[in-house]
Amino acid sequence: LANEQVVVVLCDSGISSLADLKGKTVAVQSDSSAEAALEENPDLVKTFRELITASDYNSALMDLEAGGVDAVAMDEVVADYRIEKKGEKQFVYLEEKLAEEEYGVGFLLGNDALRDKVQETLEEMAKDGTMKGISEEWFGKDITILGK
C-alpha cells in the first residue's frame, strides 16, 4: 500500500500549507513514520513554536480538537479513516505531504511457503480487482501498488 505522511489541522484553522506552521505547535506520535519524516526535515521543524510527541494519534487528535496543538503530523491512511469513516469532519489535512512510504507484509525469516502463498493470493486479488475494491472501501481510494 502507498502511504504518505500528512499534517492534519482543524478546518477553520487558517493553516493551508507547511509554511503556515511557522510559530505553531505541532504534535506527532512517538516512534512513528511521521516523526521520522519530521526528523528528516529539520528546517521545517525549526519554524515550529514547538514539536511535541504524543503516545498515540488519538491523543494527538484530541489535543488538536481541544486547541492544545495547532497541527498533527500523521499517516494519511489513519487521517483518512478518522475524517471519512469516523466522520470527524472538523479535521482536514494539508495538500503538501511530509513524506511517502509503502506498507508491506513481513514473515518469519525462512517461512518461504507462507510468503509465496500470500504473494500469489495478493497478485490474484490485484489482477481481479478485489484488492482495489477493498482499498476503496476502507481508504476511500485505491492505494494499492501491486500489479501497477
Description:
This protein is an alpha/beta fold and 148 residues long. Helix content is 41%, strand content 21%. Strands 1, 2, 3, 4, 5 and 6 form a 6-stranded mixed beta sheet that branches. It is elongated, with a radius of gyration of 17 Å.
Please give the alpha-carbon distance between the first and last residues.
11 Å
Series of H and E elements:
EEHHEHEHEEHH
Please outline the major beta sheet. Answer: 6 strands, mixed
**Total number of strands:** 6
Beta-strand percentage?
15-25%
Helical content class: 40-55%
Helix-strand category: alpha/beta
The gross shape turns out to be elongated
Radius of gyration: 17 Å
Low-confidence stretches: none
Instruction: Figure out the total of helices.
Output: 6
* Arithmetic mean of pLDDT: 93
Secondary structure layout plus pairing:
Layout: E1 2-10, E2 25-29, H1 33-39, H2 42-47, E3 50-54, H3 57-66, E4 71-75, H4 76-85, E5 91-93, E6 99-102, H5 112-128, H6 130-139
Parallel strand pairs: 2-3, 2-4
Antiparallel strand pairs: 1-4, 1-5, 1-6
Which features would summarize this protein structure in a list?
148 residues, alpha/beta, six-stranded mixed sheet, 6 helices, 6 strands
